Amino acid sequence: MVAMTTALRPHAVGEMLATPRFRGYARAAIGVVILVAIVLHAGGEPFARGLASVSIAAVGAALVLAAVSTAAAAWRWRMLAGGLGLTLSWPQAVSGYYRSQFLNTVLPGGVVGDVHRAVAHGRSVNQVGQASRAVVAERSAGQVVQLVLAAVVLVSLGMSAYAPAVGIVALVVAVMCAVGFVAAAASTRVRVAVRRELAALRTAFASGSTVVKVIAASLIVVAGHVATFVVACLAVGVDAPTERLVALALIAVLAASIPLNIGGWGPREGAAAWAFTAGGLGAATGIAASTAFGVLAMIAVTPGAVVVAASALRRRRDSQAVQSRMVAS
């Protein structure tokens, strides 16, 4: 019995480590470690400066920019879901995207909202697998466009000092792809799964017009995030040319997409500190601007909280209605 228990323990630990919940908390823990390291190194003053700089005008601009970005992201999601044969109305796409952004902001890991969005849509159309593929395709397309845009803008502006940041991200992506190819080559099961998912992606991006529209939507999304970061920079009082602010914003926003954060915080502040230092503006200024951006981004997705509350209220009413019918019968 002891031997059996001992043998089962590594298996149980392996299963625990493989659960989505554990991975989410692990990513959040890494974000906390990064954030604590930044606070210990730079102190709390830059964060306090960023918080104090948030104004009503900045909040208003962030809400408008978030509305535009969310609408564009919902458009991208609808196109790719439609390519996979799924129905997704505009109200459902916009409200679902606001909800996912809010959940990504307040829950550990930064991806819980996207998982919920995929499952909720999948259940509504009885195709959770296809709905999950649509969300993965939508987010992946956005990340690729963001990475390429950042590289193009930095090169076109001649800002070679920032090139290593994009290069590091590209290297990480390349390593992840290489690991995926090695895993596929070593396992027949993985090869079959990869072929299946690639076939689904080809279906989602079947037409050239869809690709163009997805790129256009992604550019609007990135532009909205970058503009919000520029608003944060102006609120903090950063004195720099517009093109430099755009370059700095692209790096910070790109770092914010790394799923090793807590509500978006962590890598973003570290990248901003490094980028602002490379640009001669100082790490403290970068942290302050990133802090202001983080606060504005959190406020900008609060409509998602309304969607979450409305969904909870609707579920409660449905549950009460079911209970009432059971009592009546």
From TrEMBL:
It is found in: Cell membrane. It holds the Pfam family LPG_synthase_TM. Keywords: Cell membrane, Membrane, Transmembrane, Transmembrane helix. The chain crosses the membrane at residues 25-44, 50-75, 144-162, 168-190, 211-238, 244-264, 271-289, 295-313. InterPro entries: L-PG_synthase/AglD (IPR022791). It comes from the Bacteria. It is a multi-pass membrane protein. PANTHER family: BLL5419 PROTEIN (PTHR40277:SF1). This is Lysylphosphatidylglycerol synthase transmembrane domain-containing protein. It comes from Microbacterium pumilum.
